[in-house]
């Protein structure tokens, strides 16, 4: 299949109405002419943590959300995108629970990355760990095997608890490859069209390296899984937060990539009223990307923009975000911080709030996103112009909850009355329906306080003009009769 060049929605299975069945109803009743492209449903599987990202199994849907029939029904009208956490699975999964009981005698033992697969004697060496790009202070957890009383150390890249809820898989294992094959076949049978390879950058652990996007070894896995996906007519979207050079290498290998640079670039442009860096970036970036402003995590900073931003200016922008209610995710490893100590991994916020809940600034941001070449994705909170959920952060102690609130059907209908939401829906319709977006893109000459972008295809042309002084955004386009029409965003 080819990915449809139309705006996609990102949502949790229970965020728009409480279940998959209600999600379908909301899509049909309120957004039937909006999301003709894909729906990225964040992990709907039974999970023991990280809001779905510690899956127990991929062969069931969490009953509280619905069933595979609901996924299949949504997939009949939309390109459904689901995640596979290729790096890990839940500690509570039947596979790992059997390993905890039987140890190396378990039929599932080879699924997991025990430390003897890294260090020959199974004993971790701190000097090796110091080189790694860590997501927690220690990249492993220690477990006691029930039947033997022996200790087993198993790699755990992610997780806030010790032992972690997220157990790393050994992607070199034939067992893991069989499991992934069965997962993908089940996806194909249930109308799943696109798979995001979550945390794929962490799958290769090699001593002497950062254990992040280890080349060339990672391409062996990516080539294998691409061949599997191609055979089932499934598109792949690797999710890699890394130096932009790595993203560009993925693009050269023919993969879709995420534009994790664009959200920061647009924010910086609108806050500092200067489009120079944004326009330079739009001229040079690869076109085969999924674009986003907001997501379930935050606005990427490090390592995605390493080498692209001045840390002094970045600190000032981060301080502005904090003043507007954002919170931060920070880099753990000293070696991977900047020389001056700058350590911001992500800025966590609602994109609407970080633009001071200014409708014109927010619509300007979306207009730039939609004009940037690629497949635009809109996160459900951004769709409804939702603001920072500070109460959710206080209640859970989890900073990412600032942008993860659920909406009831009544709250969705209430949000649809907002001017910002109606303007956004009109912009999405235009982006979906105007065929010039399937043509050629140019960044037009303009002053530093302006953005002028253009798409052309045959006689069709649309031009975006944004004045950063006022945030007034206008699209001039040629209609089917050859008449130039002005659309004030």
UniProtKB/TrEMBL annotation:
Keyword Glycosyltransferase attributed: yes
Keyword field: Glycosyltransferase, Transferase
Record carries keyword Glycosyltransferase: yes
Protein family membership: Belongs to the glycosyl hydrolase 13 family. Sucrose phosphorylase subfamily.
Name assigned to this protein: Sucrose phosphorylase
Record domain Glycosyl hydrolase family 13 catalytic: where: 6-420
Residues annotated as signal peptide: none
Chain segments annotated as coiled-coil in the UniProt record: none
GO terms classed as biological process: carbohydrate metabolic process
Gene Ontology terms for molecular function: 1,4-alpha-oligoglucan phosphorylase activity
